[in-house]
Amino acid sequence: MILVRRELGDVLRNLRLQQGQTLRQVASRASVALGYLSEVERGQKEASSEILYAVAEALDVPMSTILADVSERVGRLEGIMPIPDTVPAEFLSDFATK
Amino acid sequence: MILVRRELGDVLRNLRLQQGQTLRQVASRASVALGYLSEVERGQKEASSEILYAVAEALDVPMSTILADVSERVGRLEGIMPIPDTVPAEFLSDFATK
Q1: Where do the structural domains in chain B lie, given as residue ranges?
Q2: Chain segment B35-45, per-residue pLDDT in tens
Q3: For residues A61 and A25, what is the distance between their CA atoms, to the nearest angstrom?
Q4: Where is the signal peptide (chains A, B) (predicted)?
């Protein structure tokens, strides 16, 4: 079974690590317990809507971006290819702007 | 505060209504309590990952599609324009395939 909380946890952890923030820093900025955030990142606890909002703020990333990442990861697990938002390089020569 | 559960509830209800299914039918197919599904649709309860999986199955809609819809709705609330997955009609004349 594909579990959204696992993919969400990975997305949140990846974003945090990209920013070089520690669990403690994000937990503190989001006013959530460090142990809880750690469990969310590991996909062991569901993040409530309020927690997701606070963590997105702490990461300074729009929730819509986080959800789009989760959607893409879930889609890959479902075997659905994402629609690219730019023309892939190998097809670029098929397009010419006037 | 933008709450994901409200947007998710709207997306799930819209999908169900588009299919002409009743709450009872979806709850039964997903093996979730009718009252719980009703609260999820009204954005009053968080859907666990397991419930979301079961409801998506009952609606026969990929979870990634549901999450993409939620992301787009949240993005609109955040004031972020979604990236169109096709060229909007008004810009079509700017593109020519060779």
Answers
A1: 4-94
A2: 999 999 999 99
A3: 15
A4: none
For chain A, which residues lie within 8 Å of any Cβ of chain B, measuring from their own Cβ? 1-6, 46, 48-50, 52-53, 62-65, 67-68, 70-72, 74-75, 78, 80, 83, 85, 93-98
**Model pLDDT for residues A31-77, shown as the tens digit of each residue:** 999 999 999 999 999 999 999 999 999 999 999 999 999 999 999 99
Under a CB-based contact definition with an 8 Å cutoff, are residues B40 and B47 in contact?
Answer: yes
Output the six-digit token pair for B78.
């955040």
CATH dotted code for A4-94: 1.10.260.40
For residue A47, give the nearest of B53, B46, B69 by alpha carbon: B46
Chain B residue numbers touching A93 (CB-CB < 8 A): 98
ipTM above 0.85, yes or no: no
